[in-house]
Structure formats: structure tokens, C-alpha cells
Write a structure and sequence with these properties.
The complex is a heterodimer. Chain A is globular. In chain A, the strands form two sheets. Chain A has a seven-stranded antiparallel β-sheet with strand order 1-3-4-6-7-8-5, with helices on one face. In chain A, strands 2-9 form a two-stranded antiparallel ribbon. Chain A is α+β, with helices and mostly antiparallel strands. Chain A has one domain: Thiol Ester Dehydrase, Chain A. By secondary structure, chain B is an alpha+beta fold. Chain B has a single domain, classed as Hotdog Thioesterase (Thiol Ester Dehydrase, Chain A, Roll), CATH 3.10.129. Chain B has three helices and nine strands; from the N terminus they run ββββαββββαβα. In chain B, strands 1-3-4-6-7-8-5 form a seven-stranded antiparallel β-sheet, with helices on one face. Chain B has a two-stranded antiparallel ribbon with strand order 2-9. The longest helix of chain B is centred in the middle third of the chain and has 20 residues. In chain B, 40% of the residues are buried. Chains A and B meet through helix 1, strand 5 and helix 2 of A and helix 1 and strand 5 of B.
């Protein structure tokens, strides 16, 4: 894969869907063995004043870990367990970077890690996740929702093969 | 059973936000709960509620449970969440939670999602820590007390005056 490769979007996902009416519209890419996204969260998702709600922080970490598992293990998986440490508040409207990595794939269990940094490189939240193969989600079902346009030929090939 | 005030701007509990979940939080016998049926705007996989959104709901429930028991405003420090079964969109569930224990500034709480047969779909345990930099009075003023009983309203206001 290239150094910087865009990943598909799930059309109406609150986090990455370009068609979601009020979602975060994260643009995810693959870079240096990780799934990465740079973003700034609007005040509409605040918990305490000017601070992004923990559910949104957790959701972003879940998102980058899920894509890291999907891409790294070539497997459609579901989150089974997620641990999150909230180290510092995530400021609304400030630029942050989230990264997810596949840490281990063993016995059909996929372990991933994630972290979010602020614009000075300080880690503000980190996570570990356990993902298991999704038994109830078909490739065809997912194919209807994923937008593979704008992908590199190699990335499009990976997802076309995964979705059957 | 007592209705709890909603944080006016909250994505999860504000009754005014058309883009939010508009959850109504209630309190009964040490438990905070909400009866919910989450729409497809918050799905992960098709017709399955996104995990981060579920965590957000449970996080809010634990926050209320801690506040009602301690009068303290706490921030989430660490969470450990299990997704046991898919939570299906537009299907009724109850999410509820309670405080577990307190050690100085550290507070532990738990919350879970269950169906009408008490079967659990997701559960979380979490460590919260008392927030030192929060202006209590200003924060409590950000709640909408519509429909909230006088004693419950007083409970919130008393905390603001500590």
C-alpha cells in the first residue's frame, strides 16, 4: 500500500459517514501501519463546557481500531470489549489526531490499540480493544454501505475482496 | 421514580436538540436509568447501535448516579466496556447504572443495557475522579429542570451551593 491511503467511508456512519446529517465526517487513511485521522469535534458534541463528551472520544477510538482490524486482519469484526483511559480533556474545535493499530490476531480474536493526541503531540486518550469476527454481518450487507470511490486501486482491491 | 434534569446542551439528554438522543434520565432506589429506543442515525453496522454511542449513554447514567449519591461533579478517568450482544436500532431497552464505591477523589460506578427480560447487551465499569476545576454553580445552571420534582431540583441546587 502507499504511504498515505484513504480508507472507505461507511455512508451514514455518525463518525465517518459523509452522508450523515450531523456526523463527525472523519476522513480515515492508512499511514505507517496505522489507521489515522485528523479531526476537530464541534461543540455540538460537548459534555462539559468546551470539552468533547467521553462517548464521542470512545467512539473515535473504536472507529480507528475497527478499521485497523478490518484492514490488518482482512476481517469484518465487531467490538467485544474496549478499555479507554481519559488522560486529558479533548477540547472542542481543536485539531486532534487519532491512530489505531492491530496489535495481535490470534485464535480468531483481534487485539487493537488506539490513541488520540492533541496538536502538541500529548496523548489525551488511549484504548485497547478486543474484536471478534462478526457472525451476523454479511459482506454484501456491508458492501451496500461502504463507499469505495476515491480509493487507490490497491485499497479498493483489498475491500472488494473482503466484501466478496 | 423521579425525573432528572437534562443538561441543556447535551447530545444525549437535551430535550431540545433535534440531532441528539433526547434521553430522559430517571432515578429510583439508588439506580439511574433511561428507557431508550435508539434510531438508525446512531448505527454502526446496519440496524445495530454504534458502540461509542452506547458507551456515551452509560457514561451519562454513571455521571448522574455518582452526582446523586455524592453531590460531586466527576469526570470519567478510565472505562472497561463489554459488548455482549448487538443492541438493535429502534428497539426498546433500559440502560441503568449505579455507584459502586468511593475512595477519596476516586469513584467507581457501573452501568449496563438490558432488555425487558433483564438480559444484558452491554456493560461498563468505570473510574471517575472528582473534577476540581468545575464551577458548580455555573454547571448546575446549565440544567433544564422542566418536569423535575422540587426535592430533586433542590438536590442539584444544594450541590451547586457547596
Amino acid at each position: 500500500m502507499k504511504g498515505q491511503d484513504l480508507l472507505p467511508t461507511y455512508r451514514d456512519c455518525l463518525f465517518c459517514g459523509p452522508e450523515h446529517a450531523f456526523g463527525l465526517k472523519l476522513k480515515l487513511r492508512h499511514a505507517d501501519g496505522a489507521v489515522v485521522t485528523e479531526f476537530a469535534v464541534a461543540r455540538s458534541f460537548q459534555g462539559y463546557e468546551e470539552t468533547v463528551h467521553g462517548g464521542i472520544v470512545s467512539g473515535i477510538l473504536d472507529e480507528v481500531m475497527w478499521w485497523a482490524v478490518t484492514l490488518g486482519a482482512r476481517q469484518i469484526a465487531m467490538t467485544r470489549k474496549i478499555e479507554v483511559e481519559f488522560l486529558r480533556p479533548m477540547r472542542c474545535e481543536a485539531v486532534h489526531t487519532a491512530r489505531g493499530r492491530l496489535a495481535e490476531a490470534r485464535h480468531r480474536a483481534f487485539h487493537a490499540s488506539g490513541e488520540i493526541e492533541d496538536d502538541s503531540g500529548r496523548v489525551i486518550a488511549r484504548s485497547r480493544g478486543l474484536f471478534m469476527p462478526a457472525k451476523t454481518v454479511s459482506g454484501a450487507e456491508l458492501a451496500r454501505k461502504l463507499d469505495l470511490t476515491r480509493l487507490s486501486p490497491e485499497m479498493a482491491g483489498i475491500f472488494s475482496a473482503l466484501l466478496g | 421514580m423521579s425525573l432528572l434534569p437534562a443538561y441543556k446542551n447535551s447530545f444525549f439528554t437535551s430535550q431540545r436538540r433535534l440531532d441528539g438522543m433526547r434521553l430522559q434520565m430517571r432515578h429510583r432506589r439508588g439506580l439511574v436509568y433511561t428507557d431508550m429506543s435508539i434510531g438508525n442515525s446512531f448505527e454502526g453496522y446496519e440496524d445495530v447501535v454504534q458502540g461509542g454511542m452506547l458507551f456515551g449513554v452509560l457514561d451519562v447514567i454513571m455521571w448522574y448516579a455518582i452526582f446523586l449519591e455524592t453531590g460531586k461533579i466527576c469526570m470519567t478517568r478510565k472505562t472497561d466496556m463489554d459488548f455482549l450482544k448487538p443492541v438493535v436500532c429502534d428497539t426498546p431497552y433500559r440502560a441503568q447504572g449505579k455507584l459502586l464505591r468511593i475512595e477519596d477523589r476516586d469513584v467507581w460506578a457501573t452501568a449496563w443495557v438490558e432488555d425487558g427480560q433483564k438480559e444484558r447487551y452491554a456493560q461498563v465499569s468505570a473510574l471517575f475522579r472528582e473534577a476540581r476545576s468545575i464551577d458548580y454553580e455555573r454547571f448546575i445552571a446549565s440544567f433544564d429542570f422542566s418536569g423535575v420534582s422540587a426535592p430533586m431540583r433542590q438536590r442539584f441546587i444544594s450541590a451547586a451551593r457547596r
